[in-house]
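## Example record

The block below lists the input lines for one assembly entry, exactly as stored, with component labels intact.
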Amino acid sequence: MAERLDRTERLLNLLFAFMSTTQPMSRAQVREMVAGYAEGSSDEAFERMFERDKDELRSLGIPVTTMTNASGEVDGYLIPRESYALKDVAFTSAELSALTLAANAWDEAVFAPAASMALRKLETTHPGADRIDRFAVDVHIDASEVALSPVISLLNAGTAMQFDYRKAGAIQAERRTVTPMTLVSRYGHWYLAGVDHDRQEVRVFRLSRIEGAVKPAGARVATPSDLDVFALIDAGEGSEHPGTVRLRVQREQAMSLRKLGTMDGDVLTIEYSDEASVLRDIVAAGSAAIVLDPPELQLKVRDALDRIARAHGGTS
Amino acid sequence: MSGASQRLNRLLALVPWLVAHNGVSIADAAAHFDITEEQLEADLWLLVVSGLPGYGHEHLVDIQFWDDGLVHVLDPQTIDRPLRLNPHEAFALQLGLRMLAQVNDDPSIASAMAKLEDAAGVGVAPAVAELEQTQMLALVNEALKEHRVIRMTYAGAATDAATLRDVEPIRVVASSDHAYIDAWCRVAEAQRTFRLDRIEHAELCDERFTPRSIQTEDSLGSERFSVTVSLDPRLRWVAEAYGTIERESEEEVLAQLFVSDPRWVVRLVLSLQGGARVIEPAGIAQAVAREAELALRAYA
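Predicted structure tokens for the full assembly:
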């Protein structure tokens, strides 16, 4: 055996020590009794090693519990076995097929291995899923937002969070402190809803606009009991310059534009909440959708078409 | 997660699994954990020297495996049960199940969700927006169950124009942004992917079809060609979403977009309202000019 214990081995020994003790185990006891810690290292080296190992066990989700006495001093540590173990739940083979599909849906660095390990744990006492094609469904999850992983960790830790957030259209990011309430996914975008500590109101944050690290930020503040996240997302997502536009659309053309409004004959009326967005959709439709009114919007459309035609060698 | 953490995570899942599959071969165990047999043996050697302080024979994990290549766990000490799910693990499965539930109402999906929440304890439950097209989904699911042809009016992204076609549905795809159907299109005589919200109208035909073998690779994989565009720097995202950046400066981003349908590019360029200019191929630049002029004439 090598002189210094393999780190995994030391972690495992620490785990066993904390799991099987009935009384909290003190640092001194760890140093003396647990293989891997007594190797004649200095006090400082032991402290560093012990703290790092303890944190690492916790980062795996292992409930290393600090026990303090009545005066608030640390007595030692232990792991309550019932908190450690996965509850023994029996799954039917159909349920396992569903779980397997869910696990296979991920294709990125953090959650794919987590999903695969989760499935392994749940399947421990079951045979593997037999027919994952029983639902005739495929699931694909694309979660490229870097902030998703730290947000999940912190949501679970139950603290407030702090991060730099760049609002749509803003040049600079602003530091925000938030008590998180819920995490939602819509049209492939992730949003965090929570109480903004400075504004003292619920806000919705798009995860792709969080820049840099997401850090714990102390105690949570009170949160309202009800929340319509999707309404908040809609409200927050750039509702600028609402209005009404009427268009003549060609038969069987501009189908996605029609969804935005109502048809009467070949005239489409759209009540829009965001001018920039409807302008984009109208110009994209080209000759299939012609603006009847209002004149201001018609002018913007014609200007855009004119720019495009001239940039591509056309004459207008 | 450090290398040591990853390995520990595996060991903690390995021992309970070996307990439940007593007498399994090293080869099978390695395959199940997606590691080499050498790695599994190294893991087993590490386990048998680990245990409680004292490290006497009765304190160590006792696993026998060196005799006949079959693994017998005689004493797993305190790690006979798997570690509970950590927040990332619970979240990953919960989200997958919720997306599955969006498109399929089989009761076992809901019951799997309930049992998972029970097993995971308190955790992060992600919310997923409900799909609007519930009736369409119900129709598709019925077609799938009974192998019936669907006659539908569909407006593809390339043209946004309604076309009628008969399709043989293969499966529903629940994706982060939209729901889709993979189906054999009788018009294209090929497998295609259809976005659920672009189906204008659909009905079940009486005709039943014999399921064909499924193409598993990306059904958008018809030939692609490249289009060179000059973009306003604020539209850099277009290059990132649809192709690669060739060159960039303060005035422009030069990009290569990879597309399968020229009409789609025309729509894209129009939607950018002058922020994009097609440089090559000339045919596409001309198509853009033509469409813009056609629209302008309607205003004159």
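The longest helix of chain B spans residues 3-20. The longest strand of chain B covers residues 162-175.
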